[in-house]
Amino acid sequence: xxxxxxxxxxxxxxxxxxxxxxxxxxxxxxxxxxxxxxxxxxxxxxxxxxxxxxxxxxxxxxxxxxxxxxxxxxxxxxxxxxxxxxxxxxxx
Length: 92
Prior knowledge:
The protein is an alpha+beta fold. It is built from one helix and six strands. Strand 3 and strand 4 form a beta hairpin. The longest helix has 18 residues.
C-alpha cells in the first residue's frame, strides 16, 4: 500500500517563514498557511501540521523543498539577521 496525504484543515500562517539553506546562507520565504494533514501509510493514520508556501502559481509543502531547514517566526528570523550584520560590522 502506498502513502497517501489528505489536507484536513488550512490554518493561517501570518508572521511565519520557511527558512532555507542557500549555499551556506539562510534565506526566508513567507508561508502561505499551515495545513493539518492526515497521512495514511500502510494502514496507519497520523496527523501532522505542515507548512505551505507559494511556488510560482502553485502552493506546495515547504518541508518538501530540498534545502528546507525549519519554520520560524519572521520576527525571530529578522532579529537573527540583524545580530549577524552587527557582528560583521564589529569585526570590520
